[in-house]
UniProtKB/TrEMBL annotation:
InterPro entries: Thioredoxin-like_sf. It comes from the Bacteria. It comes from Hymenobacter jejuensis. This is (2Fe-2S) ferredoxin domain-containing protein.
Length: 105
């Protein structure tokens, strides 16, 4: 099995926004049929996983949203809220376009 994308969401905020972001991302991945793909006979997965800190705390603890990193690109998004999940899945995962408004400087 190969990971097409591996998404890590920080859940180290007091208001637990990261957990809500991770849940929204999982729902969107499933909704778009991207959870598990068969490409050239190989099984690929898009996985959303929570973690404690991504070293992007300014974009996480102080803002209204959570920090997110997507591999293999290594793209960091900041202040991500549950309402951003659909854009991340549709634009980044499905279309391969980075969402500039969420990028961490
Ligand atoms: S606390 Fe979320 S990135 Fe550090």
């Amino acid at each position: 099995m190969v990971y097409n994308h591996h998404i890590f969401v920080c859940t180290n905020q007091k208001d637990e926004i990261g957990k809500a972001v991770a849940k929204a991302l999982k729902i969107e991945v499933k909704k778009h049929g991207l959870k598990s793909l068969l490409i050239g006979g190989t099984k690929h997965k898009n996985r959303v996983q929570t973690c404690n800190c991504l070293d992007a705390c300014k974009q996480c603890k102080k803002g209204p949203g959570a920090a997110v990193v997507i591999y293999p690109e290594g793209v960091f998004y900041g202040n991500v809220r549950p309402k951003d999940a659909a854009d991340i899945v549709r634009e980044h995962l499905a279309a391969g376009r980075v969402i500039t408004r969420l990028l961490i400087d």
